[in-house]
Every structure is written in structure tokens, then in C-alpha cells.
Design goal:
The chain has about 120 residues and is an all-beta fold. A hairpin with a 6-residue loop joins β4 and β5. It starts with a strand and ends with a strand.
């Protein structure tokens, strides 16, 4: 079993920054993908970014490319999401998810484990 715990959410003004963290524990494998998704009321869950543990290749949705950066600290089993130039439309609950294979998928159903989510609110 794998446990994922997100942290770092909060309230920020438009144009500001936040850094989210996702700490994994339990039976993680050597090669896997960690991704961030987000969901706001009335909308479907949306892929935000993903990173492969081995090699560090990263993937982003078009809506966050150039503003968000996903990174990892393998020693700490932690993945980060640096969010800059935040917009009100970035407001959502952000979830991290883990997939035990080295392929990034943008569909939530492809992920094996999920965190509880952390709220990000961007005021205008």
C-alpha cells in the first residue's frame, strides 16, 4: 500500500505563487510516475503535471505550461509543484496521484493511489 500526503495549499492573490508538496510512503517502486490533478466545483478532474521518477521527464497541461514546474526529491520520496503567476481559474483542490509504471497518463483512472487533496484559492 502507498500513502500520499499533499501540503502547501492556501489562499493567494492573483499573480502570486505557491508550492505544493506530495510525500509518498509505503510500498513505492523504483520507477513510477507522480502527477498532479485538480478539480474545481462543477468541473471534471483535470491533469496538471506529471513527472517520471527515473530520469525526471516532465509533462504539463497547456493551461499551466510556463507557469507551473513539477520537480522531485527522490531521497525524500517527495514531488513538488511550484505554481507561479497564479490566476483565479487555478482555484481548485489539487490532488497528487501515483502510478506504478514509467508512463505518464493524463487520465485519472490510470493512477493507482491518490492523496486527500489540498485547496488552492486564488483571489482576483
Amino acid at each position: 500500500q502507498v500513502q500520499l500526503v499533499e501540503s502547501g495549499g492556501g489562499l493567494v492573490q492573483a499573480g502570486g505563487s505557491l508550492r505544493l508538496a506530495c510525500a509518498a510512503s509505503g510500498r513505492t517502486f523504483g520507477t513510477y510516475v507522480t502527477a498532479w490533478f485538480r478539480q474545481s466545483p462543477g468541473k471534471e478532474r483535470e491533469f496538471v503535471a506529471g513527472i517520471i521518477r527515473s530520469g525526471g521527464a516532465t509533462y504539463y497541461s497547456d493551461s499551466v505550461k510556463g507557469r507551473f514546474t513539477i520537480s522531485k526529491d527522490n531521497a525524500k520520496n517527495t514531488v513538488y509543484l511550484q505554481m507561479n503567476s497564479l490566476k483565479p481559474e487555478d482555484t481548485a483542490v489539487y490532488f497528487c496521484a501515483l502510478r506504478n509504471s514509467p508512463v505518464v497518463f493524463t487520465t485519472g483512472g490510470s493512477y493507482d493511489y491518490w492523496g486527500q487533496g489540498t485547496q488552492v484559492t486564488v483571489s482576483s
